[in-house]
């Protein structure tokens, strides 16, 4: 039986795959659709001409915010809100967490068999940061420049799914 938290996470991943595919189809006039959900990766996608794959991860402002969000969203789980935490330089804090999450995915060896079968896939990062603004990307770039990544070539590109006031925005992250 799938745990309630796992079911919530799968619903979140499925949603982000859907937002990403809609944008990919719109941008490239393609017809991608999900044909399988092996987990990992979250989805095998296929168009008339090509088969690829999508892996989803989430980048939160910090661990306390992640606990707040996941516990609130998971039915039957007691909500654990952030309490009394002083947050200094939230953009820098989010940027460090974003870089850490993406670095782990780019260096993860278990994606190699999927890459070898379908070619490099897409990494979709769900941005869970309510203060995301104009300067946040600058902090992300600075944090990225300060690390070294042993990229295994499993992903052709990285896309961010950012919640905006009017829905979601999908942005290509250029490393």
Provide structural commentary.
With 175 residues, the protein is α/β, with parallel strands linked by helices. It has one domain. Helices cover 40% and strands 25% of the residues. The chain is built from five helices and six strands; from the N terminus they run H-E-E-E-H-H-H-E-H-E-E. It has helices spanning 4-28, 63-73, 90-106, 112-118, 136-145, and strands spanning 33-36, 43-46, 51-60, 121-128, 155-164, 167-173. The chain starts with a helix and ends with a strand. The model has no long low-confidence stretch (mean pLDDT 94).
Strands, helices and their partners?
Layout (H helix, E strand, L loop, with lengths): L3 H25 L4 E4 L6 E4 L4 E10 L2 H11 L16 H17 L5 H7 L2 E8 L7 H10 L9 E10 L2 E7 L2
Parallel strand pairs: 3-4, 4-5
Antiparallel strand pairs: 1-2, 2-3, 5-6
Summarize the structure.
The protein has about 180 residues and is α/β, with parallel strands linked by helices. It contains five helices and six strands; from the N terminus they run H-E-E-E-H-H-H-E-H-E-E. About 40% of the residues lie in helices and about 25% in strands.
